[in-house]
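re: ur msg from earlier - yeah i can do the flavin-adenine dinucleotide complex, just paste it... oh wait u already did. ok heres what im feeding in:
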Amino acid sequence: MSKIVIVGAGYAGVMAAAHLDRAGIPFTVVNNHDYHYFTTLLHEAAGGRGPAENYQVPIKEVLRKDTSELVIDEITGVDREKKVVKGKAGEYAYDYLIYSLGWISEYFGIKGLKENSMSITNLDSAVQIRQHIENEFKAYTQDHDPRHLRIALGGAGLTGIELMGELVDYIPTLCASLGISYNDVDMQCIEAMPTILPMVAEHLRPYVFETLTKKGARLRTGTKIMEVTPGVVHLDGGEKVEAGTIVWTGGVRANPLLADSGFTVDRRGKAKVNSFLQSTDDDHIFIAGDSAWAEDENGKPYPPTAQVAEQMGACVAHNLAALLAGKPMKNFKASLKGTLCSLGAEVGVGDAFGIPIKGATAGLMKEGSKIKYLWELGGVRLAGDRGKNVMQL
Ligand SMILES: Cc1cc2nc3c(=O)[nH]c(=O)nc-3n(C[C@H](O)[C@H](O)[C@H](O)COP(=O)(O)OP(=O)(O)OC[C@H]3O[C@@H](n4cnc5c(N)ncnc54)[C@H](O)[C@@H]3O)c2cc1C
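and the outut:
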């Protein structure tokens, strides 16, 4: 029997695993946590909307069959010649590999940015951001140093704006609990591009500005970060933003492990795949999610989003099962349903099937997408049990 190994249990990996599990095809999934976390909701955990357990599901709850094995390890490399994945705790031989280790932050060579900022990369880091902000605000009650109350977010794309949306809802409550005046807080998104949220229709962006600035945020576009030193963001033109909390949300790239393992990669480190999502360097390796350099029928690269990652996960599971059964594989074609950006718990902005939406409708659709995802992963069992937490019902 062929040995199948899946590395990474994010949106792509866990969806591939769920499909293979349902089909009763044996495999081993290697992930660095025993839970699958909802990356698209990490801004909620960082912004204090709910406790960490609301944003994860134990992988064992998704994989129910004895034919599925879970190993907790940190993957460090792939030896394609020996067909072995290397981890810190062991090596995992495979006949077929599904590679879905996702993304890491991209710092674009900005001096000191990586060393002197936090970023939302996983559930732990999201919780650390929330705790850090709380500690800074508590420190302010002791020494009244205004820097403790300044939060600088680098980047005003989806992650930066969604995080700001959470903060403008949460920080007033935090201030009230500590006896701090909300007027003394300074929260700014610093964006080098002339606009925010490039993936959202231009005519909707003023709504985002209005919603967030009314609640106390500053959105600074066309403002370039040149360097970050401890507690200080240095801007083009010489301005220094002294902030107790500095969070970078400005970009992602694929795990460097792909380039290090000799795969053909693009400038963001994603590995080239064919239409079946097999590596063009090795047809025993499928690559899915943000790690895959896949193009649509017009040669346009797919965006690094959870909805594409999930669909890729389902597709690689189908293609691997077909390959093992000697049946034809299918070409990957993503169905792009739109983009939704939450602006706190109640409203949002984006598009659904190409139709621009904003306000409570967008907020509700974003909430609904959480249940839909759990349903796809584990049917009524997960959507019912976990849905209550993630929707905070
Ligand atoms: C705050 C935020 C909001 C977002 N909002 C949206 C949204 O609204 N809609 C949308 O479509 N997309 C959104 N995205 C993008 C989306 O989350 C990613 O495109 C998606 O997570 C990619 O899925 P993936 O399976 O490739 O990787 P991931 O989901 O990142 O999964 C990778 C998995 O591999 C594990 N892993 C990583 N390295 C190792 C290692 N060395 N060893 C073992 N395991 C490892 C990780 O723990 C994780 O379980 C958002 C991203 C962020 C950060």
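cool cool. The chain is about 35% helix and 25% strand. ping me if u need the other ligands too
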